[in-house]
Design goal:
The chain is an alpha+beta fold. It has a single domain, classed as 2,3-Dihydroxybiphenyl 1,2-Dioxygenase, domain 1 (Roll). The protein contains 2 helices and 8 strands, in the order βαββββαβββ. The chain has an 8-stranded mixed β-sheet with strand order 2-3-4-1-5-8-7-6, with helices on one face. β2 and β3 form a beta hairpin. The longest helix is centred in the N-terminal third of the chain and has 12 residues. It starts with 6 loop residues before the first strand and ends with a strand.
Length: 114
């Protein structure tokens, strides 16, 4: 279920997608969907997430992704509240998203279907 302004997705970096898929499938039973050579999405039955091919996204940890019913409005609210937009809205399979840093420097993303 997509709930407005709630944590909805978490994204990690991984240099070898096949290795992480094998690991999480065998140990935890996660299910994976490949979106080409550079991205693999997972579900653990309660939370969805993904692995982007790479060694470092430029952050210290996983990317927490919030959902929005109105992406453009949320983008404006992030700016107004003092957040810094790291990557403007872009499209991906399933919707659109943008990246931002909060006033403490933490990077998060927000996605929506509209």
């Amino acid at each position: 279920m997509n709930a407005h302004h709630r944590i909805n997705y978490i994204e990690f970096s991984a240099p070898d997608l096949n290795a992480v898929e094998s690991f999480y499938t065998s140990v935890f039973g996660w299910k994976f969907t490949s979106y080409g050579p550079d991205y693999s999405a997972f579900t653990d039955g309660a939370l969805d997430g993904g692995f982007e091919k790479g060694t470092n996204r430029g952050t210290d940890g996983p990317l927490v992704i919030l959902f929005s019913d109105d992406l453009e409005k949320t983008l404006a609210e992030v700016r107004t509240a003092g957040g810094t937009i790291e990557k403007e809205v872009f499209e991906f399979p399933g919707g659109k998203r943008f990246y931002f840093r909060d006033p403490a420097g933490n990077e998060l993303a927000v996605w929506g279907t509209k």
